[in-house]
Amino acid sequence: MHLRPESRGRDLSVMEGAPLLEARHVSFGYGSQPIFFDVCLQIAAGEMVGLLGPNGSGKTTLLRLLSGVLRPAQGEIWLQGRELERWRRRELARVVAVVPQELHMPFEFTVEQLVALGRFPFVGLLGSYGPQDRARIAEAMRVTGVDVLATRPFNELSGGERQRVLVAMALAQQPHLLLLDEPTAHLDIRYQIEVLELVQRLNREHGVTVLAAMHDLNLAARYFPRLILFQRGVVADGTPASVLEPRLLSRVYGIAVRVGIVRGTTHFSVVPPGSYEAQEAEEETEPREPSPRVLVMAGGGSGERVMRALADWHIPFLAGVLNIGDSDHTLALRLASRVLSEQPYAPISPAALAELRAALSTIDVLIICPMYVGPGNVTLLREALAAARQGRRVLLLAPEASESDSITVIPEAEAESAELSALLARTGIAQRDYTGGEATRLVEQLLQAGACLISRPIEALTLCAPELGSSRLG
Amino acid sequence: MASAKVVHLRRRLTPLVLAGLSVLLPLTLLAAVSAGSTAIPFGTVLQILLNGSHLFHFRQSWDPALAIIIWDLRLPEALGAALVGAGLAVAGVLFQGMLRNPLADPFLMGTSSGAALGAVIAFILPLDATYGLFFSLTPLLAFSGALLTVLLVYAIARVGGRTPVVTLLLAGVVMNALLVAVQTLILTLSPQAQFNLQALFNWLSGGISVNSWWPVMIVGAIMVAGVGGALVLGQVLDAFALGEEGAAHLGLRVEWYKFLLIMLGSLLTAAAVSISGLIGFVGLVTPHMLRLLIGPRHRPLIAASALGGASFLTLADLLARTVIAPAVLPVGVFTALIGAPFFLYLLRQSKKEYRWS
Known about the structure:
The complex is a heterodimer.
Chain A: H1 6-14, E1 21-30, E2 33-43, E3 48-52, H2 59-66, E4 74-79, E5 82-83, H3 89-93, E6 96-99, H4 111-117, H5 120-123, H6 131-143, H7 159-172, E7 177-181, H8 189-206, E8 209-213, H9 217-223, E9 226-230, E10 234-238, H10 240-243, H11 246-253, E11 258-260, E12 269-271, H12 276-282, E13 294-297, H13 304-312, E14 317-323, H14 327-335, E15 338-342, H15 350-360, E16 365-368, H16 378-389, E17 393-397, H17 402-409, H18 412-417, H19 420-427, H20 429-432, H21 438-448, E18 452-454, H22 457-463, H23 465-468
Parallel strand pairs in A: 3-8, 3-9, 6-7, 7-8, 13-14, 13-16, 14-15, 16-17, 17-18
Antiparallel strand pairs in A: 1-2, 1-4, 4-5, 9-10, 11-12
Chain B: H1 4-34, H2 42-52, H3 64-99, H4 111-124, H5 127-131, H6 137-157, H7 165-189, H8 193-204, H9 213-232, H10 234-240, H11 244-249, H12 254-276, H13 282-294, H14 298-322, H15 331-349
């Protein structure tokens, strides 16, 4: 009844402590189109993890990277304490098995013949199937319940049966790690449950570690003790209760939802607002937060300090416009009330600009982080200047590294009375200006229009506590 | 189309079909050697052949010319046909399996136009006639033309360490068009072509042209090695049926095996084409038909296709020589006349959409 031989079990216990699978700062893109940056995640042996995210969020790409079919552009993937690139393909196939979304099979292989293919990594080119291989094949078919279909052609099976055959084939590989790419995507609800029950059983009874991309949030909540919410980066990672958070989901999926425990069930449900269940579930959701009075302009990691600080102080804020895939975008999805988004690496479009203008008209304080400014995002500074001239409070955050320098070079007292150029130097904009001088001019104009230069996020609090609505702060 | 019953039947049928084909092939060869402008009785053929082995010593009761006809004309030609049939059929299995499409054929990658161009060049060069080379130049140039074309197509389609199937097919199509254009250009410009046009036409429409043992032995060695290699790669083809990514997940180095399969298939095709010209449908229909009989597993399928393709082409060659004797029809015409309607019938019969993927 053990799918994996005993010796392998011992291997695992030796490795305890180190994660089974680990992605370290992985970045990837197809051609020049970036998909995601700097993804880190760890999966321990024996876990059952659901990977969530909207269409196009990069879930499938992440799975292809983790299965070794694609190579990361940057970063590393480690499996059982060894970098994935240093595994030989055949060795890898004895540890990791992949169940695809569906299989288009051009020839009329029977179920048994297909499941037998799962032994390929063990049998190889010239070898033949021994009694042990036969036993594994029979075992894999029995566990998945496809033994009764053994002689049926694969192409004539129902969707659920096919999916079970694919799982059986993966099982014949005796994998430590099973990767599934939306295994229930094309199935009726009955088969969805059937397949997930099977995967759960494999995880619990046979100790197979599972990572499955899922599109159905409710099924994911029901079957996976740990969920990873993915949107061109890991947005959230934890229990269903912590990941299926309405604010997170509405930001990532772009639609308002309610989350809660519907009466009569034991797991979390995600429902659209306005439905009967939503009314019931509402008690579980967080109280409505006040509408944000702050907007953060950032990019390339420059916004991290400010956004974390604001979140720590429970000050709701907007963030944007940020490019999808930017590390600030991923962080903002987690922390901000709303994120104004633009396509990866794309310049700010008219649509995003209109959204930004609407957002600027509702806020009181604008914080501009020390981001790089190029032709694509210089619009942000133009809009900031317009907002400053309309009386919005604009705070320019000085870059972290130059903080100490600037203080030694220009004493505080002197800086306040010093001429504009000294202040401008402290913003460090000249070093981040890739627009041929326009950004520097805009920052200068911002300072003339009354923008304040701050060197630490906490100064934002002291400068404009009333506007920030920080009544909660003592 | 196939139910569990059919599958069950196939499992029992596989050894039967293989055994049947192993018997059929020698019989067709015997028939091919015995039939012709001078019909030779089976018994005489057998006795002459067995005497040739120097193990038997039947008393000669036949016209000595018959022995010469058999040894120098009919047997090389029959064996040549069998080798070409086996090579094309196995190449068909390789390409169909690698491309995951039962409609693929051995000429997809530009082998046919490459071989044709090589042949055309051989036909217009006066070397053959003037210097009386040891080998005829045509098979040599056809063989090299086919292989060079495939290598070129593969090199063109290779981008960033990968060779996507679609790119490969498109490169093949474009290369085909280009080489046909070059071929036409040469034919139009060369006055020499006027003389050999008929011979060239015969070559292009396919006909086994073997007049000595050397080409048969060389092609035979290539075919044996090629079919052996294909049998080894049978498991790989099974895995390829899952798609390239699926095969990679089973531990295969997909790009390497794709290269190997293309080269092996092209080697078989080029060797076949070098002594037969362009013969269509053997490589397409034989694997298809045998897949219906014994199922898709590639190792048995390759063995059966080698035997089946050999029998089919030997028979077709025999018919081509005898149907309107003394005139000889090009075999290619014959295989197409049998193959195309049969194939259309199969297509209509199995109401399944075939698609690239």
